Amino acid sequence: MMPPIAIAEIKDLVLNRLDSVPLASQLYLALRQQILAGRLSPAARLPSTRVLAAQLGIGRNTVIQALEQLQTEGYIELKPGAGSFISEQIPDHWRPGSDLPGLNLESSRFTSVHGQNQGFCVGVPDLKAFPHKIWNRLAQQQSFSGVQNLMGFGDPEGYWPLREAVADYVRTSRAVRCRPEQILITSGAQQGLELACRVLLQKGDVGAIEEPGYRGMRRALQVSANTMLAVPVDGSGIEVGALVCAKPVPKLVYVTPANQYPMGVVLSLERKSTLLEWAANNQSWVIEDDYDSEYHYHHRPLASLQGIDVHQRVVYVGSFSKVLFPALRLGYLILPETLMKDFVAAKQQSAGDAALHSQAVTAAFIKEGHFNRHLRRMRLNYAQKLQHLLDCCIALKPWCKVHSSGAGLHIVLEFTVAIDEDAVAKQLLELGVYCSVFKQYFFTPGKRQGLVLGFANSSVTEITDKVKLILAVLSSN
């Protein structure tokens, strides 16, 4: 067995107690960078958590938290009784010479539909918990301070202060590599997906999507009259092997790697590597939809796929719909610099520029720190609701298998007995419980059945009551 790496051999591993970045996050980022830079060799054993804590002068729980995050993302392996080891699966092109960015911990600020509540509507955050007073104050301030500037036409790329704010946020929270000049503000994520299909695909090209997966991407492909390939998803995310074997070669693949929609699985590190290499070798594009990656409840949000793409083949899609509110209709694309001109031109040809005032308010909300504080509160809020929902769903086990990864704003109830999901959904809607049928997320017939429940906009009491109604309906079928 390889001996532990002495802390003195890990250069530049420095934690700053005066920084607002939590120490666990600093340690995670520093070790991750050392691994990606090749300074920590594959299969090497790290010091024990007690030794690391003593050498760094921090609590052992802080070290454990950082190592658990690295394990979740596949950078290290925790072997009971043996210790923590650097993963042997880190691809060579992510190691020395890959031009991965240094992470400046000194400047980081790293942090932990329907207007009415209809029970389990998917994709709606907790609207009651939103800081309405702060938002309204900022809206009034923007109106008074720059009303004339915000009344005209803005830059097609988007409001510059918002592009700056988004760049700062995704660099520190999602390990995205970008500058504000690479950010294109859109009217929601859907416009971003449609722009990607229009720019990156020619008529007749194949676009690949996850199955089960997001229906909005299917619509985007249909609008641009492209051929669609549905690629299965398993416990490690999209089956990249099936994608590699596909003929003709897809020119674009859409993935939700941090929290697969709707199943919630994480794309494994090995598959991330294979996917990025496949895209580079075939001059194909990867659309990374990071739709609600902020909401991981047992560990810090996972680092982005874009941040480890050394070939510039990833288009990153973000949205404020789930972290703020859907009616804002504000999203963004993070593009390789070579694509920016074409995307801006395509956006100018389409309707639906985001309102300048909304962009200005959102920029102020982020820059003044309200956004990060809101996310911290919502993580606690949603974690409690999710656990309560899972506890309530124990009563449904005779009929359902529950799919949840401890992340996101929804769960999947997959029927394990023969039940008509359409009939169940109809009965529930009549009782005031709105949910999605599972088959809507499949693109080929004859797939599995069940229900998809969004829990964020329901109170704990409402969750209890609605699950009781689901139990009653399932019992009657």
Describe the structure concisely for a colleague:
The chain is an alpha/beta fold and 477 residues long.
Protein architecture, described:
This protein is an alpha/beta fold and 477 residues long. It has three domains: 7-94, Arc Repressor Mutant, subunit A; 132-371, 3-Layer(aba) Sandwich (Aspartate Aminotransferase, domain 2); 372-476, Aspartate Aminotransferase, domain 1 (Alpha-Beta Complex). The chain has helices spanning 23-36, 49-56, 60-72, 132-146, 160-174, 188-200, 215-223, 240-245, 269-282, 340-349, 356-367, 370-392, 421-430, 460-476, and strands at residues 76-79, 83-86, 183-186, 206-211, 227-234, 237-238, 252-255, 285-289, 314-319, 331-334, 400-403, 410-415, 436-437, 450-454. The strands form three sheets. Strands 3-10-9-8-7-4-5-6 form an eight-stranded mixed beta sheet, with helices on both faces. Strand 11 and strand 12 form a beta hairpin. Helix 1 crosses helix 3, helix 6 crosses helix 7 and helix 12 packs parallel to helix 14 (460-476). The protein starts with 22 loop residues before the first helix and ends with a helix. The relative contact order is 0.13.
